[in-house]
Amino acid sequence: MSKIEKFEDIKSWQLARQATSMIFDLSSKGQFGKDFTLVNQIRRSSISIMSNIAEGFERGGDKEFVNFLSIAKGSCGEARSQLYIALDRNYISQNEFDSAYKKLDETGKLIGGFMNYLKQSKLRGSKFN
């Protein structure tokens, strides 16, 4: 694993940023854009992914970071679930769903792998040096 010096170096944060951009694009179109409740919720869940990765990293301790990564991973699941609502309401096409779902799923898997790495690592973060 390459050295991570800032949260922007974290691959799962980079993917979360892409997923958030996709969600914003999808949720601004047509009928989807008029469903203010779903738009607000799916945007908030996607924002939560990248925000919790960043906040956890900035805390400076691996145990706190794992906790924030866990929240981010949960938000990935929340956003994927909300994509089903958008699909079922015909707000997005199957292809749009598949693309956004894949990005969120990949992000969640990376977060999970990163959590496992941190749990097994001897590194304790700058907070505890």
For this entry, give a set of tags.
mainly alpha
Outline the structure in words.
By secondary structure, the protein is mainly α. Helix content is 77%, strand content 0%. It contains five helices and no strands. Helix 1 packs antiparallel against helix 3 (36-59) and helix 1 (11-26) packs antiparallel against helix 5. The longest helix has 27 residues, at 62-88. The chain is elongated.
Please state the CA-atom Rg, rounded to the nearest Å.
16 Å
Give unreliable regions as ranges: none
Structure annotation, total helices: 5
Identify the quaternary structure here.
single chain
Structural class: mainly alpha
The proportion of strand residues reads: under 5%
* Major sheet size, sense and barrel closure: none
Share in helix: over 70%
* Alpha-carbon distance between the two ends: 20 Å
What order do the SSEs take from the amino end to the carboxyl end, as H and E? Answer: HHHHH
Chain-averaged pLDDT:
93
Shape field: elongated
* DSSP strand tally: 0
In short:
77% of the residues lie in helices and 0% in strands. The protein has helices spanning 11-26, 30-34, 36-59, 62-88, 94-120.
What are the SSEs and their pairings?
Blueprint: H1 11-26, H2 30-34, H3 36-59, H4 62-88, H5 94-120
Helix pairs in contact: 1-3, 1-5, 3-4, 4-5
